[in-house]
């Protein structure tokens, strides 16, 4: 044990004892589940969880509900409430290092799952292990498929308070989790409301001004392509994420070479999209912090001109039903693309600028 006192900075009133440093093996026992086939179906219903079905969120588990199984219960590995489960193998080490605390008795645990029983407060140990994911992941072995063996990670040191303090800590964290879930629920409701509003607005069923005139225009009436060549810098290349996830710096790959592909300078405020994935929501407006970054001709950019509010233009495109419909514009063999020419000829139904500003303000208010 370290000579320094293992006392955390934030404590609950009444708890002053040092946290004990032990190995995971000191406070837990380890076993493995038993194989459960999808074809093991015939006689009676039982809940089971097989390899690959572990959910990565604390205190939650995806149970695969099998209506029948012909396995004798004596042949199964059945859970006890508060068993901690960790996958034994998977595609990435960090996914393997994710612990889940099972909340039911008599759930059949399939093979390739490590089952941990602890003499401490199981939810606390689960939280603790998930805070140590990076450390646990270092014990994983393999390349294409990685494996995590209990004999390796059970020797790791952990620091734990008394069981009473463990329970207090989890009670606090669970209350915070409930608040998070409530806020997430409200956020989703607002998002759905916003989608509804956008659909009503852009189909002109809802208007701020009934006297506002809408005109059919083309993108080229408001945007012009930017083609300013730049000096390639592998660390300043942009990429556009799918599903309206925005514009980010592209991670460089070791096999890439600077100067191999012509790069163009992208400016703050420009509209930018991925030729292959415009119909998958790969577009956005370049933010200030990425001004001067680069992309190839596969990610063209456009300057705004004329009577158009850039954010209104973005909201118009960000309706899923609209951008998915653009797939029909893709041309070419193999990986199809939407060219700037096709993009500039997309038709829009555009209100007066004053109405555009009002729509942008409404979207700002509703997130």
Features:
367 residues, alpha+beta, Adenine-n6-DNA-methyltransferase TaqI, Chain A, domain 2, 2 domains, 4-stranded antiparallel sheet, 9 helices, 23 strands, 22% strand, elongated
Describe, in short, the structure shown.
Helix content is 26%, strand content 22%.
Please write the CATH class name of the largest domain. Alpha Beta
The secondary-structure class comes to alpha+beta
Q: How large, in whole angstroms, is the Cα Rg?
A: 28 Å
How much of the residues is beta strand, in percent?
15-25%
3D shape: elongated
Query: What name does the CATH topology of the largest domain carry?
Result: Adenine-n6-DNA-methyltransferase TaqI, Chain A, domain 2
The percentage helix is: 25-40%
Provide structural commentary:
With 367 residues, the protein is α+β, with helices and mostly antiparallel strands. It folds into two domains: 20-160, DNA methylase specificity domains (Adenine-n6-DNA-methyltransferase TaqI, Chain A, domain 2, Alpha-Beta Complex); 210-253 and 260-365, Alpha-Beta Complex (Adenine-n6-DNA-methyltransferase TaqI, Chain A, domain 2). Helices cover 26% and strands 22% of the residues. The chain has helices spanning 93-96, 122-131, 133-137, 150-153, 163-202, 310-317, 320-325, 340-344, 353-365; strands spanning 20-23, 28-32, 44-49, 64-69, 84-87, 89-90, 100-101, 108-109, 113-118, 141-142, 146-147, 157-160, 215-218, 223-226, 229-230, 238-240, 247-249, 263-265, 271-273, 283-285, 294-295, 301-304, 347-350. The strands form eight sheets. Strands 2-9-5-7 form a four-stranded antiparallel β-sheet, covered by helices on one side. A hairpin with a 3-residue loop joins strand 10 and strand 11 (146-147). The protein starts with 19 loop residues before the first strand and ends with a helix. 27% of the residues are buried.
């Amino acid at each position: 044990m370290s000579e320094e006192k293992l006392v955390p900075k934030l404590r609950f009133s009444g708890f002053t004892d040092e946290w004990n440093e032990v190995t995971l093996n000191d406070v837990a026992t380890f076993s493995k589940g038993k194989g459960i086939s999808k074809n093991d179906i015939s006689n009676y219903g039982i809940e089971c969880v097989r390899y690959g079905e572990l959910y990565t969120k604390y205190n939650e588990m995806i149970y695969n509900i099998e209506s029948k199984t012909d396995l004798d219960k004596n042949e199964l590995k059945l859970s006890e409430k508060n068993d901690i489960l960790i996958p034994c193998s998977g595609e990435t080490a960090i996914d393997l290092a994710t612990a889940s605390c099972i909340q039911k008795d008599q759930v059949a645990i399939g093979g390739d799952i490590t089952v941990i029983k602890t003499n401490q407060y199981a939810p606390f140990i689960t939280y603790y292990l998930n805070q140590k994911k990076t450390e646990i992941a270092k014990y994983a072995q393999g390349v294409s498929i990685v494996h995590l063996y209990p004999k390796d990670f059970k020797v790791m040191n952990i620091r734990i308070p008394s069981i009473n303090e463990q329970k207090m800590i989890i009670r606090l964290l669970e209350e915070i989790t409930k608040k998070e879930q409530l806020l997430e629920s409200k956020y989703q409701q607002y998002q759905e409301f916003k989608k509804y509003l956008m659909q009503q607005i852009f189909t002109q069923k809802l208007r701020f001004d009934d006297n506002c005139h809408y005109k059919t225009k083309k993108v080229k009436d408001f945007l012009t392509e930017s083609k300013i060549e730049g000096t390639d810098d592998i660390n300043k290349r942009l990429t556009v994420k799918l599903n309206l996830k925005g514009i980010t710096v592209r991670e460089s790959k070791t096999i890439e070479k600077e100067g191999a592909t012509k790069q163009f300078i992208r400016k703050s405020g420009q509209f930018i999209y991925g030729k292959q994935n415009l119909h998958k929501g790969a577009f956005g407006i370049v933010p200030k912090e990425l001004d001067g970054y680069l992309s190839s001709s596969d990610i063209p950019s456009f300057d705004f001109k004329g009577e158009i509010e850039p954010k209104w233009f973005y909201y118009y495109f960000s309706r899923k039903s609209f951008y998915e419909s653009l797939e029909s514009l893709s041309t070419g063999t193999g990986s199809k693309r939407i060219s700037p020419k096709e993009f500039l000829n997309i038709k829009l139904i555009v209100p007066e600028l004053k109405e555009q500003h009002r729509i942008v303000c409404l979207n700002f208010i509703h997130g």
